[in-house]
Here is the input.
Amino acid sequence: MLKQLRLTNIKSTLSLATRGCIASQYIPIASTATIWQNGNSLPTFKSKNSPITAISFRCYSLKGIGTNSLGDDKFEQTIPTSHSIKSFKSSNYTSDASIEEESNKGNPQKLLNPKKVTLKKLKWHKKPTNPARIKAPTFPYNSFQLYTKFEFSKIKEDSLDCSQFLSNQEIFKIISANWKLMAEAEKLEFEQKFKLLREQFITELHEWWDNVDKNLVQLENLRRSKVNKIRKHKGLNASSMLVDPRAPKRPASAIAMFAKDLKKLNNPDTPFRYIDFSKSVIAKWKELPESEKEIYRYKFKDSFKLYKEVLKKFK
Here is the structure.
């Protein structure tokens, strides 16, 4: 893109400079008076159908003493339009839509949509803001986990003081062995401590859910669902979602109700392991007649309607 056309006075020579090259040159007759001395200003250009129209400028040189003719010599030079000149910068120049269209004819790049340009600018200037991960307060599930929480830090510190490093697996083995050797009275003390602390924890958890931003909870659950897909592919356990403990729980499915009824029978032939028990439940569900299956399905539909009503009130 060309720089602004300018007139320079170099060693008593008036010249028009473009792109570092001299386009035209005029050597005055006797002495030179520059355009600025004669009150002229730099030319300004405007075009509608071409990047630059044919322009003309006048340079005046005063006649020296001793010449036959008096007055000013007039010099006129016309600069034709050049197709290679596409645009230039000038303080008095305002861009024209037709100039941009013609200048883009020689450019293989297409004109960008102004909406796309603004969107790109917004993306460039947008600062990446990663919201901080929120984590709900947790508490041990039973008295043994509470005992493990208290004892783990003690054994870890003792092992460091004795310069005998113990791994986490070895520490857990020591804790479980101490718990088995513990008297029942001591276990009851931990059970009472666990109940008191659990009540305090539940009140703190409810306060946390009342004050937390629900939008951040949704973002965290979305992140965990994506992570769980990767964990499932790797064969790892899925991380739990953030759910308000006061929220109504979704009712069990028809086959889950059937499995609960099978457990109530206390049949000695039912397998003890969870995997084997689930396999036997699926096999018996397939053998069950459709009339009995419909009873469990109707139960599920009724309980699901109640669940929806309670959920609306909770929200």
Q: What stands out?
A: The CA atoms of residues 254 and 296 lie 5 Å apart. Residues 143-234 form one domain. The chain has three domains: 6-123, 143-234, 254-314.
